[in-house]
Specification:
Chain lengths: 176, 363, 512
């Protein structure tokens, strides 16, 4: 009886000590996950996700409060990357998913006020005062910040047109 | 030139040719291969066997139709897979078993063995064997109630109505015709401490006759015809040799060795191969596409494993026959076998790394 | 011995299928030449690589063979006018592609004269430097005519970096229905062999082997007769099995050696060209004639006069079919228009798509048997796969949306030959699953790249704004200091200068 109590006590003490030591030496400062996710995000702080900037979204995703797919400019590829990093599954690309949107300028309305140019976080809009502006599609993050700054509603968000090089077969309809 | 409506608006991807095979054809070929043994069994055991067969198959088909309706998917009742499952189950039941055994078996096979996994192609275990084992452990008496052959037309063979009453349980099976199968008999006598040589001598040829006129399931008595059917399937390319050969080798080799060492305790390899559901199992049950490995090496491994496990169960286990258990256990191992037995990809080593380029003169 | 040799060779690659070849009677019909139609529609991208840049403007008059598109980038090909006439449009035309998406192209209205422009020929190609041959081939816009349409010059003149020992001429033509290479070898064997000799010279390879499947005895005989005088060129008869024409499989069968995965034939000192390409190279080098037409097999149950036709590039498929007697309504009527063979060809939604350099066939087939059931894991696809993949496992992963796991099963090694879907008893569109997964992976890679770019741009702009603020503040401070000094010196009221200093301080506070 005594031996049993003694041995269990010693066992408990030793394991407790091991846990304590592990806690001391393997403790992680801050949450590297948040920083890691933030590094993956576009960084344009567009706020489309509803969180304060990309850092806020990263913290929410890491805490499980937001879906990895919450970032519209990041699109499906970002969602998949983050989901892989977190080891969770994410539903990407439903049938009605229009894909990433980019800004486009209706040249007949644009007055060349350059407000959108100043608002663009990625310098994706070209043009000067009193000149019609144009969007560099490859550089546009789709953050839609320019939309609110346009006084003539010449800016619209449009899906990226699919080219011959980018087109691929859709997934076959599921078999019965 | 108005092209748009003339051709399909939504092009299909390549290839635009097909070899012409379909699932239904495969199933029909398997059924054709089963037919001679089944007809022989009907003749051997008379009307009760026919009734049991029809009830089992009918229950399978009804369950399939019901489940497909329940799942709201397109009906594929006539691709023959449910028919085949019921058929195989019927071949593994005691021929004079009560009809409710067959009906329950059909329901278990299709509903629990197949449809709960998502239907054809999704099940992990062979549906017919799931049903057989479920029946065996639940109703051991009914499932081991064998009868001696009483061919159609012979004296004392039940007629159509009488047979129906036996199957429906309204008429008890006369004790005179009940008997034991060879493996069951050997196991019982061994457990009583009697030497196998005496057992077999006493039983004479009646228990182990190659031509099949002995007690057992339809699949056991028709072994020779099933062998022919199996060879037909091999010739048609429906199945490949790896699994049957693996099963036979895995069973015969240890049996031969053990028999040579201690003939008093271990049945010979030929007895093992000729009795129970070995032939049915090796050609028709273990080869089920859905629940067996894909690659040649995997199939060989799987077959040998089933054969070996069958011998172990028969020799040392609690049941006289072990094919069904062996098949189910190796069904469970199939994903593992598939994981480790993969073909080599062209231009890569077995481990998947690109092979080293050997720059130099061509030949 | 020959039999044993062949048997051993065939044993080199497992899998493959033996579809009904349907090559005759189209292959036996004499070659016909089609005159240029009233209008040709010439896409600016007919090859693997970057689209060509248009060199002409609407209204320009061009002569046959005149360069109208210049290669753009390292892997690209020039485009030439298939006939003489006037450029009437430069813009979108329907691409010869299942998506039906537009592609940029040049529309030329024929003037009916079909007159050649100036051509730079050469009497003795063997005196030319290999690099010069490469330049002339590039100039002529020659691409691989086997279907992939890879710019030939890149492969010809050591563009791939490695030393080439063996030149393999792919004349296996394993696709059912197609017989354009067969017909070319029967009718133009001497030209083909001359082209092969030029390629041999250009690549510096020691020998050339022409692989022809044994279902083309006439072509084999013609080529054997044509190579009689050439010691370094051999005709090799290989067994008929699909996909023998796949580059890596042909190399394996002819040399017994495997091309490393993720590698190229040049890694093992081999380069493979199509036999049709050899004729195009000859025309380019000897006569300076660019690639403006090609032989197209017009075949299928619904074609009235099946056969092989030499068609100007840019001719619409419908016009080629009309040239072949049009379509017949029996056999259930035409239901599918294919460009290329039935195993890898593309179904297109309309007759109004142009023939391009890679178009080997125009097939009109009757309605396909539709089917499609669940996978029963029969393993037929695995046994048919000539690469050694497990198509059923890959498709199951893709169906579940696990594209990355599918990649783990060797998706990247799939050559999309279609053997698996050809044998599948459940008629599962396996190849579509693989195409989808490859496209999805590529789209993800593009997305990652894009996010990367956007992150860089965002950071760059933020840094730039910060820098500008700092610069502005500094400039203001300097100006304020200067004006203060000036004010003190001129003893003028300092109010203005003080205000400027105040402003400057506020500004610099921003970036402090």
């Amino acid at each position: 009886m005594l031996a049993a109590i003694l041995s269990l006590t010693i066992l408990g003490a030793v394991l407790g000590a091991v846990l304590g030591v592990a806690n001391r030496f393997f403790q992680v400062e801050g949450n590297p996950l948040v920083e890691e996710i933030e590094a993956l995000m576009p960084g344009s702080n567009c706020g489309q996700c509803g969180f304060p900037g990309c850092a806020g979204a990263a913290a929410a995703i890491a805490a499980g409060q937001a879906s990895p797919a919450c970032c519209p400019p990041g699109g499906r590829s970002l969602a998949v990357t983050i989901a892989q990093r977190l080891g969770v599954s994410v539903d990407v690309g439903g049938a009605d998913d229009p894909g990433p949107l980019v800004a486009d300028i209706d040249e007949s309305i644009c007055i060349g006020c350059t407000r959108c140019i100043r608002a663009c976080p990625t310098d994706a809009i070209l043009g000067g005062p009193k000149q019609i502006h144009n969007v560099l599609r490859d550089s546009c993050s789709g953050c839609a910040q320019c939309i609110d700054h346009c006084p003539t509603a010449a800016m619209v968000m449009q899906p990226v047109p699919i080219t011959l090089q980018q087109w691929f077969w859709p997934k076959p309809a599921s078999q019965g | 030139m108005s092209g748009h409506d003339q051709f399909m608006p939504v092009p299909a991807p390549a290839p635009h040719a097909h070899v012409g095979a379909d699932v239904g054809r495969t199933m029909r070929r398997v059924q054709l291969a089963l037919l001679p043994a089944t007809v022989f069994g009907f003749w051997l055991f008379g009307w009760p066997a026919v009734h049991l067969f029809l009830i089992t198959v009918g229950a399978s088909l009804l369950t399939e139709a019901f489940c497909q309706r329940l799942r709201g998917c397109e009906s594929r009742l006539w691709d023959g897979s449910a028919l085949l499952t019921g058929w195989l189950l019927a071949l593994s039941l005691p021929p004079w078993a009560p009809g409710w055994i067959g009906a329950l078996g059909g329901v278990i096979a299709i509903a629990i063995g197949k449809q709960v996994y998502g239907g054809l192609g999704q099940n992990l275990f062979n549906p017919a064997m799931v049903a057989r084992v479920a029946l065996l452990v639940s109703f051991p008496v009914a499932m081991t109630h064998w009868v001696a052959p009483l061919p159609l037309g012979s004296a004392g063979a039940p007629g159509f109505i009488e047979g129906l009453r036996i199957t429906l349980g309204a008429l008890p099976v006369p004790d005179a015709v009940t008997s034991a199968s060879l493996l069951g008999h050997a196991k019982t006598e061994l457990s009583r401490g009697i030497d196998l040589a005496q057992v077999l001598d006493a039983a004479g040829g009646t228990l182990s006759a190659w031509h099949g006129a002995r007690p057992g399931s339809l699949g056991e008595t028709g072994a020779l015809l099933l062998l022919l059917g199996g060879l037909y399937l091999l010739a048609r390319g429906v199945i490949r040799w790896h699994i049957p050969v693996g099963v036979f080798a895995g069973l015969a080799l240890p049996a031969a060795v053990a028999h040579a060492i201690d003939p008093g305790h271990y049945l010979s390899a030929t007895t093992h191969l000729a009795s129970g559901a070995v032939v049915l199992g090796a050609f028709f049950i273990a080869t089920d596409y859905v629940t067996s490995p894909n690659t040649a090496s995997g199939q060989l491994l799987y077959g040998i494993g089933i054969g070996l496990l069958t011998w172990i169960i028969r020799s040392w286990g609690g049941y006289p026959e072990g094919i069904a258990f062996a098949v189910l256990l190796f069904n469970a191992l199939t994903p593992v076998i598939d994981r480790y037995c993969r073909p080599r990809i062209m231009g890569r080593t077995r481990r998947g790394a690109p092979i080293r380029a050997t720059q130099g003169s061509a030949e | 011995m020959g039999f044993l040799d062949r048997f051993l060779r065939a044993a080199h690659f497992s899998g493959g299928v033996h579809p009904d070849d349907h090559k005759r009677p189209a292959a036996d019909a004499p070659l016909r030449v089609m005159a240029p139609p009233a209008r040709v529609y010439v896409p600016l991208v007919q090859h693997i690589g970057a689209p060509a840049r248009a060199l002409v403007a609407v209204g320009d008059h061009v002569r046959k063979g005149e360069r109208i598109g210049a290669p753009h980038g390292a892997v690209s090909a020039a485009i030439h006018a298939p006939t003489s006439g006037r450029v009437i449009a430069i813009g979108d035309i329907v691409a010869p592609h299942p998506s039906g998406l537009p592609v940029r192209g040049i529309t030329i209205e024929s003037d009916g004269r079909d007159e050649w422009g100036e051509l730079e020929g050469c009497d003795d190609p063997f005196a030319l430097d290999p690099a010069e041959i490469g330049r002339r081939v590039a100039q002529a816009g020659v691409v691989g005519l086997g279907g992939a349409a890879f710019p030939s010059a890149v492969k010809l003149s050591g563009g791939l970096g490695a030393r080439v020992e063996l030149l393999i001429i792919n004349a296996s033509e394993c696709e059912p229905f197609l017989s354009c290479d067969d017909r070319l070898m029967r009718d133009r064997a001497a030209e083909a062999v001359d082209g092969i000799a030029i390629m041999l010279h250009a690549t510096g390879a020691r020998e050339a082997r022409i692989g022809i499947e044994d279902n083309k005895p006439e072509a084999i005989a013609a080529m054997r007769a044509a190579v009689a005088g050439h010691a370094r060129i051999r005709v090799e008869v290989i067994p008929t099995r699909y996909p023998m024409g796949s580059e890596k499989h042909l190399i394996l069968v002819l040399t017994g050696r495997e091309v490393p995965a993720e590698g190229r034939p040049s890694d093992i000192g081999v380069v493979v060209h199509n036999v049709g390409t050899a004729v195009a190279v000859r025309n380019a080098v000897r006569f300076g004639r660019p690639l403006v037409s090609r032989i197209v097999t017009v075949n299928g149950a619904c074609v009235r006069e099946p056969g092989n036709v030499e068609v100007p590039i840019g001719t619409l498929a419908g016009e080629v079919l009309a040239f072949c007697g049009g379509l017949r309504a029996d056999h259930g009527g035409p239901a599918r228009l294919l460009l290329g063979g039935p195993m890898t060809g593309m179904q297109v939604p309309t007759l109004e798509v142009p023939v391009i350099k890679g178009t080997g066939g125009i097939l009109v087939l009757d309605a396909a048997e539709v089917g499609g059931g669940p996978c029963i894991r029969c393993g037929d696809c695995m046994r048919a796969c000539p690469v050694g993949l497990l198509p059923l496992e890959i498709a199951a992963r893709v169906r579940a949306g696990e594209v990355d796991k599918a990649a783990g099963f060797g998706l990247a090694d799939c050559i999309a030959c279609g053997c698996c879907a050809y044998v599948c008893p459940s008629r599962i569109p396996l190849v579509q699953y693989f195409h989808h997964a490859k496209g999805e992976l590529a789209a993800r890679a593009r997305g990652t790249q894009r996010n990367e770019t956007i992150r860089t741009l965002t950071r760059a702009k933020a840094e730039r704004l910060e820098r500008e603020e700092c610069d502005k503040a500094e400039a203001l401070a300097r100006r304020a200091a200067a004006s203060l000094a000036a004010a003190t010196a001129a003893k003028q009221p300092a109010a203005v200068a003080e205000k400027a200093v105040e402003d400057a301080n506020q500004e610099s506070g921003v970036c402090a």
